Amino acid sequence: MNKNPPKINNTSKDELSPELQKLHQMLETADLPVELSDRAQANIERVQRLFGSSQFYTALDNTYRFIELVIDLPWNKRSEDNLDLQVAGEILETTHYGLRLIKDRILEYIAVLALQKEAKRSSEREEVIRSLQKRGVGMSPVLMFTGLPGVGKTSIAYSVAKAMNREFIRIAMGGMGSASHLRGDPQMMSGSEPGMIVKGLRRAQTKNPVILLDEIDRVAEAARADIMGVLLELLDPQQNSEFMDYYLNYPFDLSEVMFLCSGNKTAGISNAVLDRMEVIQMPGYTDEEKIIIAREYLLPQALQVAGMDKDDVVIEEAVWPLITRPLGFDAGIRTMNRTVEAVIRRCARQRVSGTTKKFVVNEENIRDYVPE
Q1: Helix or strand or coil: residue 186?
Q2: Among 239, 261, 259, 243, which residue's Cα sits nearest to residue 251?
Q3: Rounded CA gap, 245 and 63, in Å?
Q4: pLDDT at 73 > cutoff 90
Q5: Residue 363's beta-bridge partner residues?
Q6: Which fold has domain 85-281?
Q7: Are the CB atoms for 212 and 157 separated by under 8 Å?
Q8: Which of 91, 289, 326, 366 can pair with 163 through a Cys bridge, CB separation 3.0 to 4.6 Å?
Q9: How high is the mean pLDDT of the chain?
């Protein structure tokens, strides 16, 4: 990282316009790679030479946006990983029912991180680990969750980030029509912007977040080949340490990012990309599993959202099988979740109207609470 303030080659700081002086001061206090800092300073000098021309403010705006971006990026900022297996396990258990394979895989990875941290106390062992990681060995696993809609592919990714105490970035790829959405546009293009990866890192303010590439099987067909090429670079541990966003035009190290992917199926995903991932099939839920999920997770969550206590609404055991599949079979739990939320909304309305404060939903009054 840059330890010295950027130098002004041909123009002294005092000769800069007030707007450019502000940019120079921002660069002086920023912790940037030396080469990138020098390039940003060169941009300032180039804009200064346009001072007084009709192009000055356009060039100033472009340079300001670029320098703000590079200063805001977490070049050397990391969040502290949670390495407590018990805490991580409890978080995963309280947010999702079942999914043992995924939970075990995450706990195994956290255990490896804990052992790596202990091993790095020895300078010799730390050097061995760093050498292996530079070759892409032992880096974050790339897990690909596949399954029908509503089985929890996206929500389990949130829980993984929470369990590891990492920031979470979700990039929706359904219908994505250009690889530039991921990689960004060259600065010389009108209306150019950085890609979604760099934008996400800017928001997260850490270089080791969990990034979910959601619905990667649903990108636009016309852009599929180009997008798969970018995904190959993102997900390959031997390449993503120098990921190049076209707007930034400087490599960013993504090797500490934990990438997760989701999709309804693997068809349409290139074999080269699939080869970089560990595909985990998420099965649909049985009626018995849906009842457990609704009773233990969805109902308490809906009560919290509504500002009600956990004992304010009781749904008797005999009612759950009656509302499990009101519209036929659903592999996921979205229909069940909508039904539970509808019950709580009707209870909330009655409570606010002053008729009662406690509710028991049973076979006799089910039609009063469950929508037709």
Answers
A1: coil
A2: 243
A3: 17
A4: yes
A5: none
A6: Rossmann fold (3.40.50)
A7: yes
A8: 91
A9: 84
Give mean pLDDT, residues 113-136. 70
The one-character DSSP state at 333 is S
Instruction: Determine phi and psi for 261, rounding to 5 degrees.
Output: -130, 155
CA distance 313 to 348: 10
164-175, pLDDT tens digit by residue? 899 999 999 988
- Residue 45's nearest CA partner among 74, 71, 70, 8 is 8
Where is average pLDDT lowest: 102-106, 135-139, 214-218, 280-284? Answer: 135-139
- The strand ranges marked E within the chain are 143-146, 168-172, 210-214, 243-245, 250-252, 258-263, 278-281, 313-315, 359-361
Question: What's the CA gap between 115 and 256, in Å, rounded?
Answer: 16
More confident position, 60 or 208: 208
Residue indicated by tokens 């002053």: 354
Q: Which residues pair with 260 in a beta bridge?
A: 143, 212
What is the rounded distance in angstroms from the CA atom of residue 134 to the CA atom of residue 3? 24
User: How many other C-beta atoms lie within 10 A of the C-beta of residue 368?
Assistant: 12
Identify the architecture of domain 287-369 in CATH: Orthogonal Bundle (1.10)
Question: Where along the chain do its domains lie?
Answer: 13-72, 85-281, 287-369
- Partnered with residue 146 across adjacent β-strands are 263, 281
- 322/300 Cα distance (integer angstroms): 19
- Residue 215 half-sphere exposure, CB side, CA atoms within 13 Å? 12
CB distance 207 to 74 below 8 Å: yes
Is the pLDDT at 5 greater than 60, yes or no? no
**Which residue do the tokens 């912007």 mark?**
193
What is the spatial distance between Cα 75 and Cα 37, in angstroms, rounded to a whole number?
Answer: 12
Tokens of 135: 């070759």
Q: What is the 3-state secondary structure (H, E, C) of 79-102?
A: CCCCCCHHHHHHHHHHHCCCCHHH
Q: Kindly tell me if the per-residue pLDDT of 17 is higher than 80.
A: no
| Count of residues in the chain | 372
d(Cα 186, Cα 244) in Å, to the nearest integer? 11
Q: Please check the confidence at residue 136 and state whether its pLDDT lies above 60.
A: no
- Are 309 and 303 contacting, i.e. CB atoms less than 8 angstroms apart? yes
Is residue 215 left, alpha or beta, with left meaning phi > 0 and alpha meaning psi from -120 to 50?
Answer: left
CB-side neighbour CA atoms (13 Å) of 342? 15
Model pTM?
0.79
